């Protein structure tokens, strides 16, 4: 984790689960980011309480309203972040917000498919689009030459359930809308990695492990603390060779 020195970081879905723990651990680092933008779709509601408690102790933390299903909300969030950065770029964007529904082929309906796709794929697409100018500014303003999270990066949080090769061993949870949306997110990241490489922006897919959160459930393998420690360690080591890669919270390559 010592190597992750991004000066500005934005995390979506930061009011609970993996997103909230990313914020907590980034704040506790000795070289905490100068600006840490924690996004929540309802910052003033009950679910935003933990973030509001953190803001009172950390002046570098800014809560930003962002609903991943609303293009207007995403654009407003980008304007808010740009105003805070005062001419600097955004180094690291973590598209973490997501939804899971474990529904099988015989029961899945149009709404299940559309809502999974809207939040898990179109959300990261639109968020990356809106923040692209700030990411490009960070890459251009950096003295570093190669790709890294300290310079400029988009990290899309995917899942082992988005791996097409791993469907047979993981099909105890059919989760059809989730699997399809995360497979599409993986494709989106590959496209971003090709297009944004020349801007100096690294694009990588990270699987956080099976984590004890509202989504993962209490029978999951990992505590949120373990998963996020692993993720932040991995992020600190990413370079050109990881552009477009699908990797786990331990840094291992995931099967496509
Ligand atoms: P949680 O369900 O605990 O948290 C999900 C987060 O996403 C919440 O902050 C939630 O906000 C936010 N969110 C949901 N919908 C929207 C929306 N429309 N706009 C903005 N934010 C939204 O999930 P985890 O922390 O476990 O998961 C985080 C990421 O990790 C997800 O992308 C997930 O797919 C992935 N993942 C998780 C695994 C696990 O085992 N936990 C395994 C593999 C991948 P709100 O409180 O407002 O609903």
Automatic annotation (TrEMBL):
Protein family membership: Belongs to the short-chain dehydrogenases/reductases (SDR) family.
Protein name per the record: C-factor-like isoform X1
Pfam families in UniProt: adh_short
Xref: PANTHER family: C-FACTOR, SHORT-CHAIN DEHYDROGENASE/REDUCTASE
Gene Ontology terms for molecular function: oxidoreductase activity
SUPFAM superfamilies in UniProt: NAD(P)-binding Rossmann-fold domains
Residues spanning the signal sequence: none
Listed Gene3D superfamilies: NAD(P)-binding Rossmann-like Domain
Transmembrane segments: none
Coiled-coil regions listed: none
InterPro entries xref list: Fungal_SecMetab_SDRs, NAD(P)-bd_dom_sf, SDR_fam
GO cellular component: cytoplasm
């Amino acid at each position: 984790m010592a190597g992750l020195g991004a000066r500005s970081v934005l995390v979506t879905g930061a009011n609970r689960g993996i997103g909230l723990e990313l914020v907590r651990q980034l704040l506790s680092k000795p070289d905490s980011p100068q600006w840490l933008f924690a996004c929540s779709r309802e910052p003033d509601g009950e679910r935003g309480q933990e973030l509001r408690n953190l803001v009172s102790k950390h002046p570098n933390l800014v809560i930003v309203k962002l609903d991943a299903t609303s293009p207007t909300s995403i654009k407003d969030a980008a304007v808010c972040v740009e105003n805070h950065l005062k001419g600097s770029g955004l180094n690291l964007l973590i598209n973490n917000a997501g939804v899971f529904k474990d529904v099988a082929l015989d029961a899945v309906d149009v709404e299940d498919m559309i809502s999974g796709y809207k939040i898990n794929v179109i959300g990261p697409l639109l968020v990356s689009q809106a923040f692209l100018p700030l990411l490009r500014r960070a890459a251009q303003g950096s003295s570093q030459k190669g790709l890294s999270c300290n310079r400029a990066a988009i990290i899309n949080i995917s899942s082992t359930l988005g791996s097409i090769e791993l469907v047979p061993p993981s099909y105890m949870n059919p989760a059809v809308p989730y699997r399809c949306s995360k497979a599409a997110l993986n494709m989106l990241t590959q496209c971003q990695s090709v297009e944004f490489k020349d801007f100096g922006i690294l694009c990588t897919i990270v699987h956080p492990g099976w984590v004890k959160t509202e989504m993962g459930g209490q029978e999951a393998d990992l505590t949120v603390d373990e998963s996020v420690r692993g993720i932040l360690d991995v992020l600190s080591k990413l370079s050109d060779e990881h552009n477009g890669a699908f990797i786990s919270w331990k840094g291992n390559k995931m099967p496509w």
